[in-house]
Design goal:
It is built from 19 helices and nine strands. It is α/β, with parallel strands linked by helices.
């Protein structure tokens, strides 16, 4: 309103001056310059930023904690921290200082945003959400103003809706709260972060509206220490990838509204999706339904889920097809991976395929027997053996190797570095930073060469089975782990080889 009155008065003044014969060109030039300045600093850069507001009810997208699969520890910590909003009298009676901020830390897709929404529903709070990048602009002072705006808006909306609490959720908060002095235009970044610190320091349990800031990041190491000190982000909640039981629970939640066939085994699917986040698992359930619809099926079968896992991991099937010679090499290569894996870890192969997906012409998908978080030297060396088995199989059957093993060897090098870093190599305990590059290279070569020799001895007695497997892959494009295990057992029985 004030802006419109000012513009109208200015135009009237210009008309009067022109009528009096005054040269108005300088006034017009000044008005244009002021207009451009206003546009670039306020309109174009969103001077008054409108943040997303979500009402605290399920119909608007908020969820209950019961609707979030797994994350038992994270939910427990978060619920405990939210009690100061829900039960302020009890907290005051115990003399507990209320928490001002909660930081959710974990990989992408693990449910940090869902947890924040559930927190708003649990406390019946106004819920405002923004991304860290929404506070950063080229012009100094804009970011700090936006920080003031979002806290002010949280309080005013809560009062308007007659609520006593508000939750502000900032995703990717490392962009806003990164270590000061590390950015090129550090003045604007630092000023914005300083304003956030001031706002958090000003939060009090005695306020008419209790405001809680929830931040989410997968790079807590980038955050400024001042933001993490007690009295600001008091509680850091780890939101990790789901374990086996949590994956089963998440899958059950996501298939609850989908028609499943009798052969669907969620336990098997959970075992085959080690390392998947909640978002990955939701995508698997969704892709399986799409594949069933594509096949004109009324129910989703196990093979649809298996195909969906491959699609989520590797991408859609590619149109390109290698010629017969290349296809044979790919089949031998993937068969080598699968045989080495099954011989060293019985039951570990889920399936083998020569169907191109993404950048891969073929692949062998493993099925971990259990979720492991610590690895022995023996396990890591076996993993290297499985990685190099493709190239070794090519050499055994075709007499030479190809560039198809480049990615395998890159992964093998990383595992070898892990062995060295853990003090499990012949070098003993070392500092990777102080270790000469030539010595590191020599040790990596030795570790990988030993596993190449070992896997060659392992695969040689099964050369005929390797070729049979490759022939089936060329014709059928896919072989199940169950088929491989059955043929391997028959081969061992025929040759009098005892199973491990």
């Amino acid at each position: 309103m004030i802006l419109e009155v000012g513009v109208g008065a200015s135009l009237a003044l210009v008309v009067v001056l022109a009528w009096q014969g005054v040269n108005i060109a300088p006034f017009i030039f000044l008005a244009v310059m002021l207009g451009l300045l206003y546009y670039f600093t306020t309109v174009r850069n969103g001077g008054k930023k409108e943040f997303t507001v979500v009402e605290a009810n399920k119909s608007s997208g908020l969820v209950d904690f019961e609707q979030i699969g797994g994350q038992y520890t994270a939910k427990k910590e978060l619920l405990e921290a939210l009690d100061f909003i829900r039960y302020p009298e009890r907290i005051a009676k115990m003399g507990i200082r209320p928490l001002k901020g909660i930081l959710l830390v974990g990989p992408p897709g693990t449910g940090k945003t869902l947890l924040a929404k559930a927190a708003a529903a649990y406390t019946d709070s106004v819920f405002l959400t923004a991304g860290g990048s929404e506070f950063i602009e080229l012009y100094a002072g804009v970011g700090a103003q936006r920080v003031r705006d979002i806290f002010s808006k949280a309080r005013s909306l809560a009062l308007k809706e007659k609520k006593s609490s508000a939750i502000i959720f900032i995703d990717e908060i490392e962009i806003l709260g990164g270590k000061r002095g590390t950015h090129t235009s550090h003045h604007e970044y630092d000023q914005t972060l300083n304003q956030l610190l001031v706002e958090m320091d000003g939060l009090s349990v005695d306020d008419r509206v209790r405001v809680l800031l929830i931040g989410a990041t997968n790079r807590a190491d980038l955050l400024d220490k001042a933001l993490l000190r007690p009295g600001r982000f008091d509680r850091v909640v780890q939101v990790d990838l789901p374990d086996f039981e949590a994956r089963q629970e998440i899958l059950r939640l996501h298939v609850g509204n989908k028609p499943l066939d009798y052969d669907v085994d969620l336990e098997k699917l959970a075992r085959e999706t080690f390392g998947f986040s909640g978002a990955h698992l939701e995508s698997v359930a969704n892709e399986a339904a799409i594949l069933a619809m594509r096949d004109n099926k009324e129910r989703i079968s196990q093979h649809h889920f298996t195909e969906a896992i491959d699609k989520v991991m590797m991408g859609e099937k590619m149109e390109r097809k290698p010629d017969k010679e290349e296809l044979w090499r790919v089949a031998v290569h993937e068969g080598g991976h699968a045989l080495a894996s099954e011989l060293q870890r019985p039951g570990s192969v889920a399936n083998i395929t020569t169907t191109p997906r993404g950048k891969a012409l073929g692949y062998m998908r493993q099925r971990p027997q259990k979720d492991s978080y610590l690895y022995t030297q023996e396990y890591l060396e076996e993993q290297i053996a499985i990685m190099v088995a493709g190239a070794v199989a090519e050499e055994l059957v075709l007499g030479n190797r190809s560039t198809g093993a480049a990615n395998d060897f890159a992964q093998a090098v990383e595992v070898a570095k892990r062995i060295i870093a853990s003090g499990m190599s012949s070098l003993g305990v070392v500092s990777l930073e102080d270790l000469p590059g030539s010595l590191m290279h020599k040790e990596i070569q030795q570790i990988i060469a030993e596993q190449e020799a070992a896997v060659k001895d392992l695969l040689t007695p099964y050369s005929a089975l390797l070729m049979e497997l490759a022939e089936i892959l060329v014709q059928a494009e896919k072989v199940s782990g169950d088929f491989l295990r059955r043929r391997l057992a028959e081969e061992k029985a025929a040759n009098g080889i005892k199973s491990a």
